[in-house]
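Q: What residues go here?
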């Protein structure tokens, strides 16, 4: 078990296919418990950075360290236990709602499953399902709406005790009312975890410890909301529309 959740990217350069660089010389240092936001236009490389932290792909140049350990030297199952994630594409399996939430921490009790669902604002829709928490999800949750699938993924992250959390457009499919409702739950989710958050709605990243602005795979600005607004550059443009 990794304890602190310090994440460092050092001179990371990456492409999915040879000859096409998607990330260029990325340097990020997330102290334990910090909230780091990635912003920038579609295709800028935000999801790709989190793919690399998750080690979904191997990097060619540079390195990623967690608590000072190169992630190449961390076993994949250990990495999975230490990083909770809510991704752009939801991941659920054929099994009950309860099993899908408990996947975030297999030894969780039924009570903890409900607490996590409440944090994720998922409890009320789950209770309305034919068998509640015992309702079987069809492949990848086809019998749920996209927003409901996201809430289950949030509940799964909430039940996990992983010190690192990745939120990639985690609430993009839920309606504005639920999104407003879930804000407190999201704060609870991020509490005491190193969090990487990607969100198009910039109001949700305002309070991040560091905001990193990406363009064509490069970091063009980095700082707090106030610093970046004062700078009057790309973030300022994005923020003021
Ligand atoms: P978004 O989600 O639309 O706001 O965009 P980002 O910033 O998350 O962009 P990202 O990291 O998904 O994509 C960056 C570039 O990498 C973009 O040119 C598409 C390319 N790319 C992303 N995923 C893959 C992949 O699985 N295979 C290949 N060959 N290219 C990919
Ligand atoms: Mg993305």
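A:
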């Amino acid at each position: 078990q990794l304890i602190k959740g310090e994440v460092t990217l050092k001179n990371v350069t990456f492409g999915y296919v040879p000859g096409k660089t998607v990330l260029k010389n990325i340097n990020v240092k997330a102290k334990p418990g910090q909230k780091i936001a990635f912003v920038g236009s579609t295709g800028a490389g935000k999801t790709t950075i989190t793919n690399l932290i998750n080690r979904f792909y191997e990097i060619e140049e540079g390195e990623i360290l967690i608590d000072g350990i190169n992630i190449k030297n961390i076993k994949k199952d250990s990495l999975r236990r230490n990083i909770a994630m809510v991704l752009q594409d939801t991941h659920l399996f054929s099994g009950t709602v309860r099993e899908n939430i408990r996947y975030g921490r297999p030894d969780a009790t039924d009570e903890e499953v409900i607490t996590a669902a409440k944090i994720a604002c998922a409890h009320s829709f789950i209770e309305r399902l034919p068998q509640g928490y015992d309702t079987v999800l069809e492949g990848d949750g086809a019998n749920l709406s996209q927003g409901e699938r996201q809430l289950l993924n949030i509940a799964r992250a909430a039940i996990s005790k992983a010190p690192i959390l990745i939120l990639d457009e985690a609430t993009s499919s839920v309606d504005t009312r639920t999104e407003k409702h879930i804000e407190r739950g999201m704060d609870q989710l991020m509490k005491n975890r190193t969090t990487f958050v990607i969100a198009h709605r910039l109001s949700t990243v305002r309070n991040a410890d560091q905001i990193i602005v990406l363009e064509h795979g490069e970091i063009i600005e980095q700082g707090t909301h106030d610093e970046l607004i004062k700078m009057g550059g790309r973030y300022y443009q994005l923020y003021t529309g």
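A: Context that may help when evaluating the design: The longest strand covers residues 7-14. The chain has a mean pLDDT of 94.
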